[in-house]
Amino acid sequence: SSEAISSESHATDDAISKLPRRGELFLYKNFWFRRVFLERIMLLQASFKARDDDVILATNPKCGTTWLKALAFTIINRSRYEFSNHPLLTCHPQQVISTIDVETPLNGDLACIETLPSPRILATHMPFSLLPGSIGIQGCRIVYICRDPKDAFVSWWHFTSEFFREKIDIDVAFDMFCEGISNYGPFWDHCLEYWTESSTKTDRVLFLKYEEMVLEPVKYVRKLASFLGASFTSEEEDGKIPEEVVRLCSFNTLSALNANEAQVVQRGNIVVKKSAYFRRGKVGDWVNHISEEMGRKLDDIVEEKLRGSGLVF
Ligand code: A3P
């Protein structure tokens, strides 16, 4: 009932208010979150029911979520849509797959997720350790994409300052990021949790790197398809379907579409310009926004945090 939902959300409010806080961010079980996302994470932990054929796309913010959504959607639905008349030509990738911790209604009504037909593709920025328990129990397939932290930081700073209209001093934000204090951070712990899981459960977690995908997109599209149980057939290979998938989902194609240039997209209770998800799409753009010295500092921190894990950027 609405009364039960409202008393639950008060309890969540109270629990969040008691957490350690830095500015807009709250520390919950070793990760920092803005309140709106944390409220949804708590709701989802309490009531999200995974299905065994769910595919979960997991990312740190600004590491390639939009791209991964486009690729997974296109691969899984390729027998349903012609490339010449494809939903991604008219719908933003953020509109075809929902990020559950960004878009779940704050009143806890999960109908928009529960009514989706199987197999569902759902995205999240949640750290592995905070995923709702049923995702683990059902053994859902998880695809994770990570990115050089310097580029992810710069991408996030632009997104937040230009598109959320929050003016944040880049030096202050950088120092906090280096301390591990960023939305869904520490950045490296987020990567490390999925990395560790992917190295022991290769059939369950696929760990991808943005930079490697930019270099060899067709190779990674094949890998993604095979992981999702939807390998390309030899006829599809002959018909250059993997290449078509790469082309449709590329930064150049998607960012030039009218559907992704004008207007805004409603995401939960926030409204974002569609073009905000397509800025430059380049590897190494950080050099244009932070100093070499800052770059080295972050590299050193991340290297130390990841030492011994086998994960390198
Ligand atoms: P930049 O800000 O460096 O350009 P997310 O989708 O997780 O929010 O990440 C956004 C970043 O991915 C942005 O990086 C954006 O430009 C880039 N991006 C969006 N679509 C892409 C695509 N199809 N291919 C490669 N990069 C893409």
How would you describe this protein?
The chain is an alpha/beta fold and 313 residues long. The chain is built from 17 helices and nine strands. The protein has helices at residues 2-17, 35-47, 65-76, 93-96, 100-103, 111-114, 133-138, 149-163, 170-179, 187-200, 210-215, 217-227, 234-238, 241-249, 251-256, 258-261, 292-306, and strands spanning 21-22, 25-28, 31-34, 55-59, 121-124, 141-146, 205-209, 264-267, 270-273. The strands form three sheets. A four-stranded parallel sheet has the order 5-4-6-7, sandwiched between helices. It has a three-stranded antiparallel sheet with strand order 1-2-3. Helix 12 crosses helix 14 (241-249). It starts with a helix and ends in a 7-residue tail after the last helix. The model has no long low-confidence stretch (mean pLDDT 93). The structure holds adenosine-3'-5'-diphosphate. Residues 59, 61-67, 70, 151, 155, 158, 249-251, 254, 277-281, 285 line the site of adenosine-3'-5'-diphosphate.
Q: Could you say which structural class the secondary elements and strand pairing correspond to? A: alpha/beta
Binned strand content? 5-15%
User: What's the assembly state of these chains?
Assistant: single chain
Q: Give the strand order, joined by hyphens, for the main sheet.
A: 5-4-6-7
- The global form is globular
